[in-house]
Amino acid sequence: MEEVPHDCPGVGSAQAGRGASCQGCPNQGLCASGAGAAPDPAIEEIKEKMKTVKHKILVLSGKGGVGKSTFSAHLAHGLAEDENTQVALLDIDICGPSIPKIMGLEGEQVHQSGSGWSPVFLEDNLGVMSVGFLLSSPDDAVIWRGPKKNGMIKQFLRDVDWGEVDYLIVDTPPGTSDEHLSAVQYLAAAHIDGAVIITTPQEVSLQDVRKEISFCHKVKLPIIGVVENMSGFICPKCQKETQIFPPTTGGAEVMCHDLKIPLLGKVPLDPRIGIRFRLKAGYRISLEASRGRCPACPVYRESRRSPPCTRLLSVRVATKDSLFWLKPRIHQPL
Amino acid sequence: MEEVPHDCPGVGSAQAGRGASCQGCPNQGLCASGAGAAPDPAIEEIKEKMKTVKHKILVLSGKGGVGKSTFSAHLAHGLAEDENTQVALLDIDICGPSIPKIMGLEGEQVHQSGSGWSPVFLEDNLGVMSVGFLLSSPDDAVIWRGPKKNGMIKQFLRDVDWGEVDYLIVDTPPGTSDEHLSAVQYLAAAHIDGAVIITTPQEVSLQDVRKEISFCHKVKLPIIGVVENMSGFICPKCQETQIFPPTTGGAEVMCHDLKIPLLGKVPLDPRIGKSCDKGQSFLVEAPDSPATLAYRSIIQRIQEFCSLRQPKGENLVGS
């Protein structure tokens, strides 16, 4: 059969050369002999590159929309509050890269130099990389199948010149597929410290999160712990607490107890979390309107295990002609 | 170079045989000649299979966690309330299949017969299929790369014996990748009525949703309209507040700018999450909720959209 099989199991898979659809494929002999399973040379290259990166943390969730990117961004901000800590934030969500917006870096471009791609620096000690920086417009869709996404992730890990970094935080899309396998495989020789797994309280989320935990066990990725986001809502008007996403099966607390995994913390829903702002040069506006108790604040601080906390607040000053964007301010813990 | 290239662009891609990593691959000649781009025979098989399915609706979102599966399930429930309407719900989220739980069908198994796989029937007129039914335990992770997921989706479309169906609803995972491309490609010859796109009000969601709309335009998939979920919350003590503030005007402004219908806005009701966890229809559990009223109105608009589209069949002239 002189044609390319449609159901190619993939050159690196266990079925390579052995599957029914491999019959007649010119590559069959090579795949069956295991040539396709030879390690990717990029793995060693990435191991070398990662020698200047002390700690690597993956932020995962089986479920979408639970706040992975929000948490990754806050973790990066929080760690970078110490000017002596070098932080890098890598967004490997190729189809839905949220990090540029959440970090207030939309429109920024990546530059190439002799030593590789330069990340976009929000602060001197906080560099960010995302496919979002490579798009001509934020509305451009990245419609790629798995192999092409994997290629991009490999480039991010191998070709970005992160420099000396204390923490590399890797934000991921939901699921247990190409991006996750690639991140783990490409970093295999470089030692990942562990994964932080994000969930929300309801069982529909926990079900997917248990799959993610299963994934971590299968690929031998240590789990730092679980963060439960959207854990109750405190009405800013009347302070009444409501469970928007009721923990019908006990939420993350029960799941972590059952699976013997640390629960790092529970972050309540605060509408102010949903809003991000960035300073435009030359403007500094009073945050009077925003001072006040932010119930989410101490919990983020606990999760990061290092004071003080940052409150990313929602003060928005709009005139009829323009909107002022405000830089996150550092506040003392309440 | 006698080895398999690691960066194989994929045998069906435009770069097949032409990419830098193709140099030396034994398949290079074949790929470059376009042999890999020959249409998959499954496309015709699926077209045949879909002849008994009148309307096909994809439920999409660029963003995760906005309520696609919740909406797909309630669309199915709502349509199936008419006993004379045959409804099929297909879950092609391979890594995170939520539909079995939301429909209260966890633990059910799929059976094979001479005419193919049988969907799991919640009601006589409501059949469901999901990879969730193929797992030995709901906690089993499906850790598959793109090609294997595509194979599963092909099987779902080609091998499931749906029977005579009025509406096939396809629930998708977030993104614009393998699953979405495969669904559109395998159904290419079978005519999809359109896509319903789900979002939440905040700009971080809308950004991903605009990409999904871009995807629909690129693959020439009609857009039935957009649904804005989690559109406000009624605090039981005081009054309404926005949990996910529409800092850029929410779906309303986006739809106006992109000239796409806004099918409706569904407010947050904690009973929705509870119903989903328990596998019950929220429409039945909370018939007076503003969210239920919103769902029903949206379902009606979708039915109206579909009724304007002639199903392909024997009765048509010149279609």
Automatic annotation (TrEMBL), chain B:
Cellular localisation: Cytoplasm; Nucleus
Co-factor note (free text): Binds 4 [4Fe-4S] clusters per heterotetramer. Contains two stable clusters in the N-termini of NUBP1 and two labile, bridging clusters between subunits of the NUBP1-NUBP2 heterotetramer.
Domain (AAA+ ATPase): residue spans on this chain: 54-210
InterPro entries: AAA+_ATPase (IPR003593), Mrp-like_CS (IPR000808), Mrp/NBP35_ATP-bd (IPR019591), NUBP1/Nbp35 (IPR028601), P-loop_NTPase (IPR027417), YlxH/NBP35 (IPR033756)
GO BP annotations, alphabetical order: iron-sulfur cluster assembly
Binding-site residues, [4Fe-4S] cluster 2: C235, C238
Keyword Cytoplasm among UniProt keywords: yes
Family to which this protein belongs: Belongs to the Mrp/NBP35 ATP-binding proteins family. NUBP1/NBP35 subfamily.
Chain's role: Component of the cytosolic iron-sulfur (Fe/S) protein assembly (CIA) machinery. Required for maturation of extramitochondrial Fe-S proteins. The NUBP1-NUBP2 heterotetramer forms a Fe-S scaffold complex, mediating the de novo assembly of an Fe-S cluster and its transfer to target apoproteins. Implicated in the regulation of centrosome duplication. Negatively regulates cilium formation and structure.
Name this protein carries in UniProt: Cytosolic Fe-S cluster assembly factor NUBP1
Gene name, Swiss-Prot/TrEMBL: NUBP1
